[in-house]
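Quick one, tokens below:
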């Protein structure tokens, strides 16, 4: 009769030490690591494509790395240069036409709500004005992105460094990806090699299906919302659509934010409620397309995290580690799911559990 394994301390201690090390580094120098973390995540997503180009089309790895690095640099420059000024202008127009917007909300939304539920709720312009006036300086500074950056040379330098450093790091990450994997593999205790490879395989299968699938979903939905909102004639519809598509990785909240901003922008720019039904149709079709076709096909249900867990992980990691936490929230949560599954399976096979 085979002896059931006892609980081994060595792999548990190794995992705990690695976890503590990662969190300590994130707390101490996390901000410095932002461009390198982004580069590694992008390299991880692109690596299968680079391998395929090298094996099937004999395209050398350095040429693929150069192409993807330059493409990333172009995207980092062009997308913010197009989207941010447009959104800042939209926000300024919305604030200027706030009285008209509040009047329309009270007339067309709150009146129907009050009739249905027998309430007497209305949006108070004076109260809202007091809130806006008390935070006027903060709101103005947040909206006036160009002036804020111009007044703080450190932010400008940091952004420029990131825009250059991320593509530069991406080039060398793609070029040396297999060497990086070998370095980490050599650090694994030899008695734990098979278990580590099994863990890495499961983590890679789950993480790759999510990251690559979710990135595809974001690109498809950004294109859909940008085209759909432009077709119905929404001012700055392309910019709002791109931002909405890029935010779909946050379940529900991303689409709701884009929908509300599109509605408010339409009311402020067009000056009526004529385009609201068209916006509702565009977002309703987009939500059904994303939830019923695009996400199930490209991502599937293999990540093991429901929408509440995804939002919670983003909030917790973002609160503790800032931007670095937001970048690592979903990868680390996915890894945690795999570790818990393996730990549960291993625990149930031990004599400690069985006896």
């Amino acid at each position: 009769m085979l002896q059931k394994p006892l609980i081994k301390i060595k792999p548990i201690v190794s995992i705990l030490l690695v976890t503590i090390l990662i969190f300590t580094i994130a707390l101490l120098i996390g901000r410095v690591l932002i461009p390198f973390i982004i580069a590694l995540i992008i390299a991880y997503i692109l690596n299968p494509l680079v391998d395929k180009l090298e094996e099937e089309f004999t395209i050398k790895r350095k040429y693929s790395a150069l192409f993807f690095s330059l493409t990333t640099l172009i995207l980092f420059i062009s997308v913010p240069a197009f989207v941010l000024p447009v959104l800042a202008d939209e926000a300024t127009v919305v604030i200027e036409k706030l009285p008209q917007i509040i009047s329309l909300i009270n007339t067309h939304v709150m009146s129907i709500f009050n009739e249905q539920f027998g309430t007497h709720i209305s949006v108070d312009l004076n109260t809202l004005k007091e809130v806006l006036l008390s935070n006027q300086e903060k709101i103005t500074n947040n909206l006036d992105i160009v002036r804020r950056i111009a007044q703080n040379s450190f932010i400008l330098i940091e952004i420029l460094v990131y825009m250059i450093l991320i593509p530069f790091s991406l080039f060398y990450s793609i070029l040396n990806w297999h060497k990086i994997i070998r370095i980490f593999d050599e650090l694994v205790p030899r008695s734990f090699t098979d278990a580590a490879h099994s863990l890495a395989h499961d983590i890679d299968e789950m993480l790759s299906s999510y990251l690559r699938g979710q990135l595809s979903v974001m690109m498809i939905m950004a294109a859909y919302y940008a085209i759909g909102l432009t077709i119905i004639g929404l001012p700055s519809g392309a910019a709002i659509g791109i931002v909405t598509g890029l935010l779909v990785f946050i379940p529900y909240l991303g689409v709701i934010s884009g929908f509300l901003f599109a509605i408010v922008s339409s009311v402020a720019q067009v000056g009526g409620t004529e385009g609201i039904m068209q916006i509702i149709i565009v977002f309703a079709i987009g939500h059904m397309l994303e939830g019923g076709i695009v996400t199930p096909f490209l991502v599937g249900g293999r990540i093991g995290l429901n929408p509440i867990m995804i939002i919670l992980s983003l909030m917790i990691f973002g609160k503790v580690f800032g931007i670095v936490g937001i970048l690592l929230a979903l990868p680390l949560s996915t890894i945690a799911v795999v570790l818990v599954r393996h730990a549960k399976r291993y625990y149930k096979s031990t004599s400690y559990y069985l006896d």
